[in-house]
Design goal:
Structural class: mainly alpha
Pfam families: TetR_C_31, TetR_N
Number of strands: 0
InterPro entries: Homeodomain-like_sf, HTH-type_TetR-like_transc_reg, HTH_TetR, Tet_transcr_reg_TetR-rel_C_sf, TetR_C_31
Helix content: over 70%
Protein name: TetR/AcrR family transcriptional regulator
Largest sheet: none
CATH architecture of the largest domain: Orthogonal Bundle
Keywords: DNA-binding, Transcription, Transcription regulation
GO molecular function: DNA-binding transcription factor activity; transcription cis-regulatory region binding
CATH topology of the largest domain: Tetracycline Repressor, domain 2
Number of helices: 10
């Protein structure tokens, strides 16, 4: 049998892990089961990735990069700021609709990583990366169209992602096409309003907010 290098085996194992866990859940994603999914020895998984957590980290990275690539590919080159953000948000939502199992798997891996010290750092890196990429898309759209941002791109990105994550969870648990489209439109409008400074930023005392957070 011809030898397969770790570099060649790596994407194969990532795909096998995604196929298995998207179908049966993260709990089913043991190295033995993933190896069986691909039809290789269990030792191959450990030789290629080291640990199961390292493989999970690669799965998170792969899924995120795949979705990011789809959104970037949809970015218009000659639209105004409003249309650009609308197209980007719609492209991201299309990944939720068309690849719901991938989003469900990312959600499950996120919850799993919160309980795993070995994956917690990878999760934080993943989240920072998502915010960074979203911020870059906002900045690129603003610079191309000459739109002055009323808030830092990072704040706009985190605001949008917070709403989008909630909408994604609603789709996964209780899908409703009409309601989801209305909520997505409202989220885009709210994000645009924040970016353009058309949202009244109420000056709530910082010590009050910190007190509420601390008491919680």
């Amino acid at each position: 049998m011809a030898h397969v290098s770790a570099a060649e085996r790596r994407p194969q194992l990532i795909k096998a892990a995604i196929d298995l866990m998207a179908r049966e859940g993260v709990a089913a994603g043991s190295t033995r089961a993933i190896a069986a999914e691909l039809g290789v020895a269990q030792a191959t998984v450990h030789y290629t990735f080291g640990t199961k957590e390292d493989l999970y980290r690669a799965v998170i990275q792969h899924l995120t990069q795949e979705m990011e690539g789809q959104v970037r590919q949809a970015a218009p080159v000659d639209a105004d700021f409003e249309e650009t953000l609308g197209v980007l948000a719609s492209a991201l939502w299309r990944t939720v609709r068309d690849q719901s199992k991938s989003h469900q798997l990312l959600t499950e891996l996120t919850m799993f990583a919160l309980r795993s010290p070995h994956l917690r750092e990878a999760l934080e890196t993943h989240n920072r990366g998502v915010v960074r990429v979203t911020s870059e898309l906002v900045m690129e759209a603003a610079e191309r169209t000459g739109q002055q941002l009323a808030q830092p791109a990072g704040i706009i990105a985190r605001f949008f992602l917070a709403g989008f994550d909630g909408l994604t969870m609603q789709h996964l648990t209780h899908p409703d096409d009409e309601a989801e489209l209305a909520c997505l439109q409202a989220l885009i409008s709210s994000t645009l309003a924040l970016a353009r400074g058309r949202v009244e930023m109420v000056a709530v005392p910082r010590d009050l907010i910190e007190g509420v957070v601390a008491s919680g």
